[in-house]
Amino acid sequence: xxxxxxxxxxxxxxxxxxxxxxxxxxxxxxxxxxxxxxxxxxxxxxxxxxxxxxxxxxxxxxxxxxxxxxxxxxxxxxxxxxxxxxxxxxxxxxxxxxxxxxxxxxxxxxxxxxxxxxxxxxxxxxxxxxxxxxxxxxxxxxxxxxxxxxxxxxxxxxxxxxxxxxxxxxxxxxxxxxxxxxxxxxxxxxxxxxxxxxxxxxxxxxxxxxxxxxxxxxxxxxxxxxxxxxxxxxxxxxxxxxxxxxxxxxxxxxxxxxxxxxxxxxxxxxxxxxxxxxxxxxxxxxxxxxxxxxxxxxxxxxxxxxxxxxxxxxxxxxx
Amino acid sequence: xxxxxxxxxxxxxxxxxxxxxxxxxxxxxxxxxxxxxxxxxxxxxxxxxxxxxxxxxxxxxxxxxxxxxxxxxxxxxxxxxxxxxxxxxxxxxxxxxxxxxxxxxxxxxxxxxxxxxxxxxxxxxxxxxxxxxxxxxxxxxxxxxxxxxxxxxxxxxxxxxxxxxxxxxxxxxxxxxxxxxxxxxxxxxxxxxxxxxxxxxxxxxxxxxxxxxxxxxxxxxxxxxxxxxxxxxxxxxxxxxxxxxxxxxxxx
Lengths: 319, 252
Fold this sequence. Notes:
CATH architecture of the largest domain in chain B: 3-Layer(aba) Sandwich
Strand order of the largest sheet of chain B: 6-7-8-3-9-10
Number of strands of chain B: 10
Distance between the termini of chain B: 43 Å
Oligomer: heterodimer
Low-confidence stretches of chain B: none
CATH superfamily of the largest domain in chain B: P-loop containing nucleotide triphosphate hydrolases
Radius of gyration of chain B: 19 Å
Strand order of the largest sheet of chain A: 1-2
Largest sheet of chain A: 2 strands, antiparallel
Protein backbone atom coordinates (compact mmCIF):
# COMPACT_ATOMS: atom_id res chain seq x y z
CA UNK A 1 0.00 0.00 0.00
CA UNK A 2 2.75 2.40 1.06
CA UNK A 3 5.00 1.04 -1.67
CA UNK A 4 2.58 1.88 -4.45
CA UNK A 5 2.01 5.37 -3.11
CA UNK A 6 5.76 5.99 -2.89
CA UNK A 7 6.25 4.52 -6.32
CA UNK A 8 3.71 6.84 -7.92
CA UNK A 9 5.03 9.89 -6.07
CA UNK A 10 8.57 8.93 -7.03
CA UNK A 11 7.58 8.64 -10.67
CA UNK A 12 5.99 12.11 -10.62
CA UNK A 13 9.04 13.65 -8.94
CA UNK A 14 11.36 11.98 -11.41
CA UNK A 15 9.25 13.22 -14.31
CA UNK A 16 9.33 16.74 -12.85
CA UNK A 17 13.09 16.58 -12.42
CA UNK A 18 13.59 15.33 -15.97
CA UNK A 19 11.21 17.99 -17.20
CA UNK A 20 13.32 20.68 -15.60
CA UNK A 21 16.74 19.46 -16.67
CA UNK A 22 16.19 17.89 -20.07
CA UNK A 23 16.98 20.35 -22.87
CA UNK A 24 16.34 18.14 -25.89
CA UNK A 25 12.88 18.59 -27.40
CA UNK A 26 12.95 14.99 -28.53
CA UNK A 27 13.41 13.67 -25.00
CA UNK A 28 10.71 16.00 -23.71
CA UNK A 29 8.44 14.57 -26.38
CA UNK A 30 9.17 11.03 -25.15
CA UNK A 31 8.44 12.12 -21.59
CA UNK A 32 5.11 13.58 -22.69
CA UNK A 33 4.19 10.34 -24.44
CA UNK A 34 5.02 8.40 -21.27
CA UNK A 35 2.70 10.68 -19.28
CA UNK A 36 -0.16 10.37 -21.80
CA UNK A 37 0.14 6.59 -21.84
CA UNK A 38 0.47 6.39 -18.05
CA UNK A 39 -2.85 8.22 -17.66
CA UNK A 40 -4.59 6.22 -20.38
CA UNK A 41 -3.30 2.86 -19.12
CA UNK A 42 -4.12 3.69 -15.48
CA UNK A 43 -7.66 4.33 -16.61
CA UNK A 44 -7.95 1.05 -18.53
CA UNK A 45 -6.35 -0.81 -15.63
CA UNK A 46 -9.19 0.23 -13.32
CA UNK A 47 -11.58 -1.86 -15.42
CA UNK A 48 -9.24 -4.69 -16.44
CA UNK A 49 -7.42 -5.00 -13.14
CA UNK A 50 -10.05 -4.14 -10.56
CA UNK A 51 -13.45 -5.00 -12.05
CA UNK A 52 -11.98 -7.84 -14.11
CA UNK A 53 -13.77 -7.07 -17.37
CA UNK A 54 -11.93 -6.47 -20.61
CA UNK A 55 -13.18 -3.53 -22.69
CA UNK A 56 -11.79 -3.55 -26.23
CA UNK A 57 -13.42 -0.19 -26.85
CA UNK A 58 -11.87 1.89 -24.12
CA UNK A 59 -10.34 4.06 -26.83
CA UNK A 60 -13.85 5.49 -27.35
CA UNK A 61 -13.40 7.66 -24.25
CA UNK A 62 -9.90 8.71 -25.27
CA UNK A 63 -11.25 9.81 -28.66
CA UNK A 64 -14.25 11.54 -27.14
CA UNK A 65 -11.95 13.54 -24.88
CA UNK A 66 -9.76 14.50 -27.82
CA UNK A 67 -12.69 15.55 -30.03
CA UNK A 68 -14.37 17.47 -27.22
CA UNK A 69 -11.29 19.66 -26.85
CA UNK A 70 -10.96 20.05 -30.62
CA UNK A 71 -14.59 20.99 -31.21
CA UNK A 72 -15.20 23.20 -28.17
CA UNK A 73 -11.81 24.87 -28.56
CA UNK A 74 -12.28 25.60 -32.27
CA UNK A 75 -12.84 29.26 -33.22
CA UNK A 76 -16.56 28.59 -34.02
CA UNK A 77 -17.21 27.77 -30.36
CA UNK A 78 -14.16 29.40 -28.93
CA UNK A 79 -14.06 28.03 -25.42
CA UNK A 80 -10.75 28.49 -23.59
CA UNK A 81 -8.68 25.31 -23.92
CA UNK A 82 -7.93 25.29 -20.19
CA UNK A 83 -11.64 24.88 -19.60
CA UNK A 84 -12.25 22.34 -22.36
CA UNK A 85 -9.83 19.82 -20.82
CA UNK A 86 -11.82 19.09 -17.66
CA UNK A 87 -15.00 19.40 -19.70
CA UNK A 88 -13.68 16.72 -22.08
CA UNK A 89 -13.21 14.38 -19.15
CA UNK A 90 -16.80 14.97 -18.04
CA UNK A 91 -18.13 14.42 -21.57
CA UNK A 92 -16.23 11.11 -21.68
CA UNK A 93 -17.65 10.20 -18.24
CA UNK A 94 -21.18 10.96 -19.47
CA UNK A 95 -20.66 8.64 -22.43
CA UNK A 96 -19.19 6.14 -20.00
CA UNK A 97 -22.47 6.19 -18.13
CA UNK A 98 -24.42 5.74 -21.37
CA UNK A 99 -22.24 2.97 -22.79
CA UNK A 100 -21.87 1.34 -19.37
CA UNK A 101 -25.64 1.17 -18.93
CA UNK A 102 -25.78 -1.02 -22.02
CA UNK A 103 -22.54 -2.99 -21.93
CA UNK A 104 -22.18 -3.70 -18.20
CA UNK A 105 -25.30 -5.87 -18.29
CA UNK A 106 -23.16 -8.22 -20.37
CA UNK A 107 -20.01 -9.94 -19.35
CA UNK A 108 -17.13 -11.92 -20.74
CA UNK A 109 -16.83 -12.01 -24.54
CA UNK A 110 -20.13 -10.16 -25.04
CA UNK A 111 -18.87 -7.18 -23.08
CA UNK A 112 -15.60 -7.22 -25.05
CA UNK A 113 -17.35 -7.18 -28.42
CA UNK A 114 -20.05 -4.64 -27.64
CA UNK A 115 -17.58 -2.12 -26.21
CA UNK A 116 -15.48 -2.59 -29.36
CA UNK A 117 -18.57 -1.92 -31.45
CA UNK A 118 -19.16 1.37 -29.64
CA UNK A 119 -15.62 2.53 -30.39
CA UNK A 120 -16.05 1.60 -34.04
CA UNK A 121 -19.37 3.45 -34.28
CA UNK A 122 -17.69 6.56 -32.87
CA UNK A 123 -14.82 6.19 -35.33
CA UNK A 124 -17.28 6.01 -38.23
CA UNK A 125 -19.17 9.00 -36.87
CA UNK A 126 -15.94 10.99 -36.63
CA UNK A 127 -15.10 10.01 -40.21
CA UNK A 128 -18.50 10.79 -41.72
CA UNK A 129 -20.06 13.60 -39.70
CA UNK A 130 -18.03 16.12 -41.66
CA UNK A 131 -19.88 19.23 -40.48
CA UNK A 132 -18.94 18.51 -36.89
CA UNK A 133 -15.61 16.71 -37.06
CA UNK A 134 -14.27 17.76 -40.48
CA UNK A 135 -14.31 14.08 -41.37
CA UNK A 136 -11.11 12.25 -42.29
CA UNK A 137 -9.30 15.59 -42.59
CA UNK A 138 -9.58 16.00 -38.86
CA UNK A 139 -9.39 19.20 -36.86
CA UNK A 140 -6.05 20.96 -36.94
CA UNK A 141 -4.66 23.91 -35.06
CA UNK A 142 -5.97 23.12 -31.59
CA UNK A 143 -4.63 25.81 -29.28
CA UNK A 144 -2.67 25.16 -26.14
CA UNK A 145 -4.02 26.00 -22.69
CA UNK A 146 -3.66 29.66 -21.73
CA UNK A 147 -2.21 28.67 -18.35
CA UNK A 148 0.95 27.64 -20.20
CA UNK A 149 1.49 31.27 -21.27
CA UNK A 150 1.80 32.44 -17.68
CA UNK A 151 5.51 31.77 -17.30
CA UNK A 152 8.23 31.82 -19.93
CA UNK A 153 9.63 28.45 -18.85
CA UNK A 154 6.26 26.86 -19.58
CA UNK A 155 6.59 27.68 -23.29
CA UNK A 156 6.91 24.84 -25.75
CA UNK A 157 7.28 21.20 -24.82
CA UNK A 158 8.31 21.82 -21.24
CA UNK A 159 4.88 23.29 -20.52
CA UNK A 160 3.20 20.13 -21.81
CA UNK A 161 5.38 18.01 -19.55
CA UNK A 162 4.30 20.17 -16.61
CA UNK A 163 0.66 19.81 -17.63
CA UNK A 164 1.09 16.06 -18.01
CA UNK A 165 2.55 15.79 -14.53
CA UNK A 166 -0.43 17.64 -13.05
CA UNK A 167 -2.91 15.45 -14.95
CA UNK A 168 -1.00 12.26 -14.07
CA UNK A 169 -0.97 13.31 -10.42
CA UNK A 170 -4.74 13.82 -10.56
CA UNK A 171 -5.14 10.42 -12.24
CA UNK A 172 -3.00 8.63 -9.67
CA UNK A 173 -4.85 10.34 -6.84
CA UNK A 174 -8.24 9.28 -8.22
CA UNK A 175 -7.08 5.73 -8.97
CA UNK A 176 -5.38 5.36 -5.59
CA UNK A 177 -8.37 6.60 -3.64
CA UNK A 178 -10.70 4.42 -5.67
CA UNK A 179 -8.64 1.28 -5.21
CA UNK A 180 -8.24 1.84 -1.48
CA UNK A 181 -11.88 2.60 -0.82
CA UNK A 182 -14.96 0.61 0.00
CA UNK A 183 -16.00 0.97 -3.66
CA UNK A 184 -12.66 -0.34 -4.88
CA UNK A 185 -12.91 -3.28 -2.52
CA UNK A 186 -16.41 -4.01 -3.80
CA UNK A 187 -15.04 -3.97 -7.37
CA UNK A 188 -12.25 -6.42 -6.47
CA UNK A 189 -14.80 -8.67 -4.78
CA UNK A 190 -16.76 -8.68 -8.04
CA UNK A 191 -13.62 -9.47 -10.01
CA UNK A 192 -12.76 -12.37 -7.73
CA UNK A 193 -16.21 -13.90 -7.40
CA UNK A 194 -19.50 -12.49 -8.54
CA UNK A 195 -21.56 -14.88 -6.38
CA UNK A 196 -19.69 -14.09 -3.18
CA UNK A 197 -19.99 -10.39 -4.00
CA UNK A 198 -23.76 -10.59 -4.31
CA UNK A 199 -24.15 -12.74 -1.25
CA UNK A 200 -22.33 -10.20 0.93
CA UNK A 201 -24.61 -7.44 -0.35
CA UNK A 202 -22.70 -5.92 -3.26
CA UNK A 203 -24.81 -4.71 -6.17
CA UNK A 204 -22.66 -5.82 -9.14
CA UNK A 205 -24.03 -3.26 -11.58
CA UNK A 206 -23.60 -0.29 -9.25
CA UNK A 207 -19.89 -0.81 -8.70
CA UNK A 208 -18.86 -1.93 -12.16
CA UNK A 209 -20.72 1.15 -13.42
CA UNK A 210 -18.98 3.45 -10.97
CA UNK A 211 -15.51 2.23 -11.90
CA UNK A 212 -16.42 2.29 -15.58
CA UNK A 213 -17.44 5.97 -15.35
CA UNK A 214 -14.30 6.93 -13.43
CA UNK A 215 -12.17 5.08 -16.00
CA UNK A 216 -14.01 6.85 -18.85
CA UNK A 217 -13.36 10.19 -17.13
CA UNK A 218 -9.62 9.50 -16.93
CA UNK A 219 -9.43 8.21 -20.51
CA UNK A 220 -11.18 11.41 -21.62
CA UNK A 221 -8.57 13.39 -19.71
CA UNK A 222 -5.80 11.52 -21.51
CA UNK A 223 -7.49 12.21 -24.85
CA UNK A 224 -7.84 15.90 -24.08
CA UNK A 225 -4.19 16.10 -23.11
CA UNK A 226 -3.17 14.27 -26.26
CA UNK A 227 -5.26 16.56 -28.50
CA UNK A 228 -3.81 19.77 -27.08
CA UNK A 229 -0.31 18.35 -27.27
CA UNK A 230 -0.28 17.31 -30.91
CA UNK A 231 -2.81 20.08 -31.69
CA UNK A 232 -4.59 17.87 -34.21
CA UNK A 233 -7.43 15.36 -33.91
CA UNK A 234 -8.55 12.93 -36.59
CA UNK A 235 -10.68 9.75 -36.61
CA UNK A 236 -7.57 7.70 -35.82
CA UNK A 237 -7.96 8.65 -32.13
CA UNK A 238 -10.70 5.99 -32.14
CA UNK A 239 -8.40 3.56 -33.92
CA UNK A 240 -7.08 0.17 -32.96
CA UNK A 241 -3.40 1.17 -32.51
CA UNK A 242 -4.30 3.11 -29.35
CA UNK A 243 -6.37 0.20 -28.09
CA UNK A 244 -3.52 -2.22 -28.71
CA UNK A 245 -0.95 0.05 -27.08
CA UNK A 246 -2.93 0.60 -23.89
CA UNK A 247 -3.74 -3.08 -23.54
CA UNK A 248 -0.07 -4.00 -24.03
CA UNK A 249 0.94 -1.41 -21.42
CA UNK A 250 -1.50 -2.76 -18.85
CA UNK A 251 -0.61 -6.40 -19.48
CA UNK A 252 3.13 -5.77 -19.60
CA UNK A 253 3.17 -3.52 -16.54
CA UNK A 254 0.83 -5.65 -14.48
CA UNK A 255 -2.93 -5.42 -14.28
CA UNK A 256 -4.46 -4.91 -10.88
CA UNK A 257 -1.55 -2.87 -9.53
CA UNK A 258 -1.36 0.93 -9.60
CA UNK A 259 2.33 0.95 -10.47
CA UNK A 260 1.93 -1.50 -13.36
CA UNK A 261 0.48 0.93 -15.91
CA UNK A 262 3.30 3.40 -15.16
CA UNK A 263 6.00 0.76 -15.59
CA UNK A 264 4.25 -0.41 -18.74
CA UNK A 265 3.95 3.12 -20.14
CA UNK A 266 7.66 3.74 -19.66
CA UNK A 267 8.66 0.36 -21.10
CA UNK A 268 6.36 0.51 -24.11
CA UNK A 269 7.18 4.12 -25.04
CA UNK A 270 10.91 3.47 -24.85
CA UNK A 271 10.60 0.17 -26.71
CA UNK A 272 8.61 1.82 -29.47
CA UNK A 273 11.27 4.47 -29.90
CA UNK A 274 14.16 2.07 -29.63
CA UNK A 275 12.65 -0.41 -32.06
CA UNK A 276 11.96 2.35 -34.58
CA UNK A 277 15.27 1.52 -36.28
CA UNK A 278 13.83 -1.85 -37.24
CA UNK A 279 11.10 -0.14 -39.27
CA UNK A 280 8.32 -2.60 -40.22
CA UNK A 281 9.96 -5.34 -38.22
CA UNK A 282 9.36 -3.46 -35.00
CA UNK A 283 5.71 -4.47 -34.83
CA UNK A 284 6.68 -8.13 -35.02
CA UNK A 285 9.39 -7.68 -32.41
CA UNK A 286 6.86 -5.94 -30.24
CA UNK A 287 4.46 -8.80 -30.65
CA UNK A 288 7.11 -11.31 -29.64
CA UNK A 289 8.03 -9.33 -26.53
CA UNK A 290 4.39 -9.13 -25.50
CA UNK A 291 3.85 -12.84 -26.09
CA UNK A 292 6.91 -13.62 -23.99
CA UNK A 293 5.56 -11.50 -21.13
CA UNK A 294 2.11 -13.05 -21.26
CA UNK A 295 3.65 -16.54 -21.32
CA UNK A 296 6.31 -16.13 -18.66
CA UNK A 297 4.94 -13.38 -16.41
CA UNK A 298 1.18 -13.48 -16.94
CA UNK A 299 0.64 -10.87 -14.23
CA UNK A 300 3.09 -8.45 -15.84
CA UNK A 301 6.20 -6.89 -14.38
CA UNK A 302 4.58 -5.48 -11.24
CA UNK A 303 2.49 -8.61 -10.84
CA UNK A 304 5.74 -10.54 -10.65
CA UNK A 305 7.23 -8.04 -8.20
CA UNK A 306 4.09 -8.25 -6.07
CA UNK A 307 4.33 -12.00 -6.03
CA UNK A 308 7.92 -11.83 -4.85
CA UNK A 309 7.46 -9.09 -2.30
CA UNK A 310 3.95 -9.66 -0.99
CA UNK A 311 4.31 -7.42 2.03
CA UNK A 312 4.91 -4.30 -0.06
CA UNK A 313 1.47 -4.59 -1.59
CA UNK A 314 -0.72 -5.49 1.38
CA UNK A 315 -3.87 -3.48 0.99
CA UNK A 316 -4.78 -3.74 4.64
CA UNK A 317 -2.31 -3.09 7.38
CA UNK A 318 -1.68 -5.62 10.09
CA UNK A 319 -3.87 -4.97 13.10
CA UNK B 1 -37.82 -14.71 11.46
CA UNK B 2 -37.69 -16.42 8.05
CA UNK B 3 -40.85 -18.02 6.80
CA UNK B 4 -41.21 -20.01 3.61
CA UNK B 5 -44.74 -20.68 2.33
CA UNK B 6 -45.64 -23.04 -0.50
CA UNK B 7 -42.31 -22.44 -2.22
CA UNK B 8 -42.15 -24.10 -5.63
CA UNK B 9 -39.77 -24.05 -8.56
CA UNK B 10 -40.01 -25.84 -11.87
CA UNK B 11 -37.34 -26.01 -14.54
CA UNK B 12 -39.31 -26.93 -17.64
CA UNK B 13 -41.16 -30.09 -16.65
CA UNK B 14 -38.97 -30.82 -13.66
CA UNK B 15 -40.46 -29.84 -10.33
CA UNK B 16 -37.28 -29.17 -8.36
CA UNK B 17 -39.09 -27.80 -5.33
CA UNK B 18 -42.78 -28.30 -4.59
CA UNK B 19 -44.84 -26.63 -1.88
CA UNK B 20 -42.16 -26.36 0.73
CA UNK B 21 -43.15 -24.72 4.04
CA UNK B 22 -40.92 -24.12 7.00
CA UNK B 23 -39.89 -21.39 9.37
CA UNK B 24 -36.60 -20.44 10.97
CA UNK B 25 -37.40 -18.91 14.38
CA UNK B 26 -35.00 -16.54 16.08
CA UNK B 27 -32.17 -18.17 18.01
CA UNK B 28 -32.54 -21.58 16.39
CA UNK B 29 -30.52 -23.79 14.11
CA UNK B 30 -32.70 -25.33 11.42
CA UNK B 31 -31.38 -27.97 9.04
CA UNK B 32 -32.58 -28.95 5.62
CA UNK B 33 -31.63 -32.52 4.79
CA UNK B 34 -32.45 -35.06 2.12
CA UNK B 35 -30.83 -37.21 -0.54
CA UNK B 36 -28.91 -35.62 -3.41
CA UNK B 37 -31.22 -33.87 -5.84
CA UNK B 38 -33.95 -33.38 -3.24
CA UNK B 39 -34.07 -29.63 -3.91
CA UNK B 40 -32.22 -28.29 -0.87
CA UNK B 41 -29.80 -26.04 -2.73
CA UNK B 42 -32.63 -24.88 -4.98
CA UNK B 43 -34.47 -23.81 -1.82
CA UNK B 44 -31.40 -21.76 -0.84
CA UNK B 45 -31.31 -20.15 -4.26
CA UNK B 46 -35.02 -19.35 -4.07
CA UNK B 47 -34.78 -17.79 -0.62
CA UNK B 48 -31.72 -15.66 -1.46
CA UNK B 49 -33.06 -14.49 -4.80
CA UNK B 50 -30.61 -16.28 -7.09
CA UNK B 51 -33.69 -18.05 -8.57
CA UNK B 52 -37.20 -16.69 -8.91
CA UNK B 53 -39.82 -19.05 -7.44
CA UNK B 54 -42.54 -20.40 -9.73
CA UNK B 55 -44.98 -20.11 -6.83
CA UNK B 56 -44.90 -19.43 -3.12
CA UNK B 57 -43.65 -16.77 -0.79
CA UNK B 58 -40.58 -15.92 1.25
CA UNK B 59 -41.29 -13.78 4.33
CA UNK B 60 -38.59 -12.01 6.30
CA UNK B 61 -39.65 -10.49 9.63
CA UNK B 62 -43.20 -10.87 8.38
CA UNK B 63 -42.66 -8.85 5.20
CA UNK B 64 -42.75 -10.41 1.77
CA UNK B 65 -39.29 -10.54 0.14
CA UNK B 66 -40.01 -13.14 -2.54
CA UNK B 67 -37.62 -12.86 -5.52
CA UNK B 68 -35.64 -9.90 -4.15
CA UNK B 69 -32.25 -9.47 -5.80
CA UNK B 70 -29.46 -11.42 -4.02
CA UNK B 71 -27.70 -8.25 -2.90
CA UNK B 72 -30.97 -6.92 -1.45
CA UNK B 73 -31.43 -10.10 0.60
CA UNK B 74 -27.88 -9.73 1.89
CA UNK B 75 -28.59 -6.11 2.81
CA UNK B 76 -31.58 -7.35 4.84
CA UNK B 77 -29.26 -9.65 6.79
CA UNK B 78 -29.70 -12.97 4.99
CA UNK B 79 -26.22 -14.21 4.11
CA UNK B 80 -25.50 -17.51 2.40
CA UNK B 81 -22.59 -19.68 1.35
CA UNK B 82 -22.44 -21.99 -1.64
CA UNK B 83 -22.26 -25.74 -2.09
CA UNK B 84 -19.26 -25.37 -4.38
CA UNK B 85 -16.51 -23.53 -2.52
CA UNK B 86 -16.68 -19.85 -3.40
CA UNK B 87 -14.08 -17.48 -1.98
CA UNK B 88 -12.00 -14.59 -3.31
CA UNK B 89 -9.17 -16.80 -4.52
CA UNK B 90 -6.33 -14.38 -5.11
CA UNK B 91 -6.83 -12.55 -1.81
CA UNK B 92 -5.52 -13.66 1.58
CA UNK B 93 -7.72 -15.19 4.24
CA UNK B 94 -7.79 -11.90 6.12
CA UNK B 95 -8.59 -9.86 3.01
CA UNK B 96 -11.42 -12.24 2.18
CA UNK B 97 -13.10 -11.41 5.45
CA UNK B 98 -12.34 -7.69 5.16
CA UNK B 99 -14.01 -7.68 1.74
CA UNK B 100 -17.02 -9.44 3.19
CA UNK B 101 -17.54 -6.44 5.50
CA UNK B 102 -18.81 -4.50 2.50
CA UNK B 103 -22.09 -3.48 4.15
CA UNK B 104 -20.28 -2.20 7.23
CA UNK B 105 -17.78 -0.13 5.25
CA UNK B 106 -20.11 1.10 2.55
CA UNK B 107 -19.84 4.83 1.90
CA UNK B 108 -21.60 7.20 -0.50
CA UNK B 109 -19.76 6.92 -3.82
CA UNK B 110 -18.43 10.48 -3.76
CA UNK B 111 -16.78 9.73 -0.40
CA UNK B 112 -14.46 7.41 -2.36
CA UNK B 113 -12.32 10.40 -3.28
CA UNK B 114 -12.81 12.32 -0.07
CA UNK B 115 -12.73 9.93 2.88
CA UNK B 116 -13.33 11.48 6.31
CA UNK B 117 -12.68 10.41 9.89
CA UNK B 118 -15.79 8.22 9.90
CA UNK B 119 -14.42 6.21 6.99
CA UNK B 120 -11.13 5.71 8.84
CA UNK B 121 -13.00 4.66 11.99
CA UNK B 122 -15.10 2.18 10.01
CA UNK B 123 -11.95 0.76 8.40
CA UNK B 124 -10.30 0.26 11.79
CA UNK B 125 -13.42 -1.43 13.08
CA UNK B 126 -13.54 -3.70 10.02
CA UNK B 127 -9.91 -4.74 10.54
CA UNK B 128 -10.63 -5.53 14.19
CA UNK B 129 -13.80 -7.45 13.42
CA UNK B 130 -12.05 -9.38 10.63
CA UNK B 131 -9.28 -10.45 13.00
CA UNK B 132 -11.87 -11.60 15.54
CA UNK B 133 -13.76 -13.63 12.92
CA UNK B 134 -10.54 -15.15 11.60
CA UNK B 135 -9.72 -16.30 15.14
CA UNK B 136 -13.26 -17.59 15.66
CA UNK B 137 -13.14 -19.87 12.61
CA UNK B 138 -9.65 -20.97 13.59
CA UNK B 139 -7.69 -19.47 10.71
CA UNK B 140 -5.74 -16.94 12.77
CA UNK B 141 -2.43 -18.50 11.84
CA UNK B 142 -3.35 -18.58 8.14
CA UNK B 143 -4.18 -14.87 8.05
CA UNK B 144 -1.82 -13.84 5.25
CA UNK B 145 -2.09 -16.97 3.14
CA UNK B 146 -3.76 -16.59 -0.24
CA UNK B 147 -7.09 -18.39 -0.40
CA UNK B 148 -5.93 -20.38 -3.41
CA UNK B 149 -3.25 -21.94 -1.19
CA UNK B 150 -5.63 -23.05 1.60
CA UNK B 151 -6.71 -26.65 2.06
CA UNK B 152 -10.22 -27.79 1.31
CA UNK B 153 -11.11 -27.86 5.01
CA UNK B 154 -9.66 -24.41 5.59
CA UNK B 155 -11.62 -23.05 2.63
CA UNK B 156 -14.85 -24.31 4.18
CA UNK B 157 -14.00 -22.46 7.39
CA UNK B 158 -13.01 -19.38 5.44
CA UNK B 159 -16.39 -19.42 3.70
CA UNK B 160 -18.10 -19.38 7.07
CA UNK B 161 -15.80 -16.49 8.04
CA UNK B 162 -16.66 -14.59 4.87
CA UNK B 163 -20.35 -15.05 5.56
CA UNK B 164 -19.91 -13.88 9.16
CA UNK B 165 -18.03 -10.84 7.89
CA UNK B 166 -21.21 -9.70 6.21
CA UNK B 167 -22.85 -9.57 9.69
CA UNK B 168 -25.74 -11.93 9.00
CA UNK B 169 -28.90 -12.04 11.05
CA UNK B 170 -29.74 -15.33 9.34
CA UNK B 171 -26.74 -17.33 8.20
CA UNK B 172 -27.44 -19.95 5.53
CA UNK B 173 -24.70 -22.52 5.04
CA UNK B 174 -24.82 -24.93 2.11
CA UNK B 175 -22.96 -28.13 3.04
CA UNK B 176 -20.34 -26.50 5.27
CA UNK B 177 -18.93 -29.91 6.24
CA UNK B 178 -18.50 -31.24 2.70
CA UNK B 179 -14.95 -32.50 2.30
CA UNK B 180 -14.11 -32.22 6.01
CA UNK B 181 -12.69 -35.15 7.94
CA UNK B 182 -14.34 -36.34 11.16
CA UNK B 183 -12.21 -34.21 13.43
CA UNK B 184 -12.69 -31.10 11.30
CA UNK B 185 -16.44 -31.73 11.16
CA UNK B 186 -16.57 -31.90 14.95
CA UNK B 187 -14.73 -28.61 15.17
CA UNK B 188 -17.24 -27.13 12.76
CA UNK B 189 -20.13 -28.44 14.87
CA UNK B 190 -18.68 -26.70 17.93
CA UNK B 191 -18.26 -23.53 15.94
CA UNK B 192 -21.81 -23.60 14.55
CA UNK B 193 -23.57 -24.35 17.82
CA UNK B 194 -21.82 -21.32 19.35
CA UNK B 195 -23.01 -18.90 16.69
CA UNK B 196 -26.70 -18.22 17.44
CA UNK B 197 -27.21 -15.41 19.89
CA UNK B 198 -23.61 -14.16 19.61
CA UNK B 199 -22.65 -13.85 15.96
CA UNK B 200 -25.94 -14.48 14.20
CA UNK B 201 -29.58 -14.66 15.23
CA UNK B 202 -30.36 -17.92 13.47
CA UNK B 203 -28.80 -20.53 11.26
CA UNK B 204 -30.19 -22.50 8.32
CA UNK B 205 -28.09 -25.46 7.23
CA UNK B 206 -28.06 -27.78 4.28
CA UNK B 207 -25.90 -30.75 5.20
CA UNK B 208 -25.29 -34.43 4.61
CA UNK B 209 -23.21 -35.11 7.68
CA UNK B 210 -25.80 -36.67 10.00
CA UNK B 211 -23.66 -36.56 13.13
CA UNK B 212 -23.27 -32.84 12.68
CA UNK B 213 -26.96 -32.29 11.90
CA UNK B 214 -28.22 -34.27 14.86
CA UNK B 215 -25.77 -32.58 17.18
CA UNK B 216 -26.42 -28.95 16.35
CA UNK B 217 -29.97 -28.71 14.99
CA UNK B 218 -33.00 -27.54 16.92
CA UNK B 219 -35.29 -28.43 14.07
CA UNK B 220 -34.83 -30.59 10.98
CA UNK B 221 -36.74 -30.46 7.69
CA UNK B 222 -36.39 -33.51 5.45
CA UNK B 223 -36.86 -33.15 1.70
CA UNK B 224 -37.12 -35.80 -0.98
CA UNK B 225 -37.84 -35.32 -4.71
CA UNK B 226 -38.57 -31.64 -4.13
CA UNK B 227 -41.23 -32.27 -1.48
CA UNK B 228 -41.23 -31.98 2.26
CA UNK B 229 -41.10 -35.47 3.69
CA UNK B 230 -40.99 -34.78 7.39
CA UNK B 231 -40.09 -32.15 9.96
CA UNK B 232 -39.31 -32.24 13.64
CA UNK B 233 -36.62 -32.39 16.27
CA UNK B 234 -33.51 -34.46 15.52
CA UNK B 235 -34.81 -37.26 17.73
CA UNK B 236 -38.18 -37.37 15.94
CA UNK B 237 -36.49 -37.41 12.54
CA UNK B 238 -34.16 -40.24 13.49
CA UNK B 239 -37.13 -42.34 14.54
CA UNK B 240 -39.20 -41.57 11.43
CA UNK B 241 -39.56 -44.67 9.19
CA UNK B 242 -40.25 -42.60 6.05
CA UNK B 243 -36.99 -40.75 6.46
CA UNK B 244 -35.07 -43.96 6.96
CA UNK B 245 -36.64 -45.31 3.81
CA UNK B 246 -35.69 -42.26 1.76
CA UNK B 247 -32.10 -42.61 2.85
CA UNK B 248 -31.66 -46.36 3.08
CA UNK B 249 -34.24 -47.69 0.65
CA UNK B 250 -37.23 -49.88 1.43
CA UNK B 251 -36.72 -52.88 3.67
CA UNK B 252 -37.17 -56.12 1.74
